[in-house]
TAXI family TRAP transporter solute-binding subunit
Amino acid sequence: MSSIRNVSFVSLRDLLVAAGPTVILVTAAVIAAYLLVDPAPPTHVRLATGQENSAYEAFGVQYAKALKQDDILVSLQPSLGSRDNLARLRSGQADIAFVQSGSTGEARAGELGLVSLGSLFTEPVWLFLRTSIKTSNLTGLRGLRINLGPEGTGVPNLFRQILAVNGVEPNELVISELENTPATMALLAGKIDGLVFSSAPEAPLIQMLLQTPGIRLFNFSQAEAYTRRLPFLTHVTLPRGIVDLGRDIPSQDYHLIAPTATLVAREDLHPALIDLFVKAATRIHSGAGWFQQQGQFPSPKFSEIPVASGAAKYYRDGPPFLQRYMRFWLANLFERLWVVVVALAALIIPLSKIVPPLYVWRVRSRVYRWYGELRAVEQAWEGVGDGERESVRLDLLRRLDEIEEQVNHISIPLAYADGLYGLRGHINIVRQRLKTTGPAVEGSPE
């Protein structure tokens, strides 16, 4: 091993000493950039959904399955609905939630630190009445027993706005606050006259009530006027026969008014998770449906909550380039590595100009320092008088032998061996001069 070191082209020890501080500094900078500049996305996220048997609950399950494919655990939090979900987002109990348009304004959303990831689907206002209720106008609901659901949902506030534009005060109705499933059972039992849902048609209770004898759907024949009075609403049509063509259910076109369901998140949600949720939304909601065309949803439109910049970029440009061809975690890793590359370039380029000269100086210094000893021998010989020369000559020759012995044990890379052999030659030159009768002549190498 000693022989190998003696004939190596590079001195590993000198290289480590010269480059060590640089390596440590670069490593520290890379670790800091990797961990602090753009932290890795969390592997767990909390999604607030909705009531039992609601569309929010059904879609929440689909989101959990979609993100599980990318190793993200989505914890579903059942809730009363939009207003409850907003409260959960505000308190930090949830990271992301389904919220109905019209539940909050842009200014209020900004105060709460909320952003939209896009509108997902329309949520028509479904007013189901017993067939014995013949009214075709909402003013005919006065005195009737109507269930609007718990206050934590978005329906009570929404329907109060709808009643207000009809000149109907809420206290003119007998309003109950049952949840969806108990309210449906109460309607079928005749304990209430009607109930209001605001949900996608995929909700199981909607599907059931559309086909239940003795229950009819209210037709919002003035739907277009509602959209002018309440801008967050849209006019949608439930086509004749869409539920069951064979049985002609429904037997006519129904005009409905509909807010949109929006995916709302806290503004500190990791950008990579925003991409994943918008990707999942595209997969889940982009198909054609009862009230939407192929590709109409998800969309950055139809929301009063500002759209997150990452979501807007996704809608505009599509998924990040690497995520189109790689698994999420691998793509995210490479997307974060650019920060590390910048950190490396910022440090390595200037430091690379320091390390080579420092390495060369350390290697050559093992040779150069002996020239000081050699020069000391010459100077000692130059100041010797005639009577002392013989004794001093012997001492200086012994000193040269000691110097030569130590020089012979110097380990130096082959690339710098010329300096070592030059030193040995100069030692012999000084030795020859000491063997002459006079002191060393001027001009001897230093």
Notes: The chain has 15 helices and twelve strands.
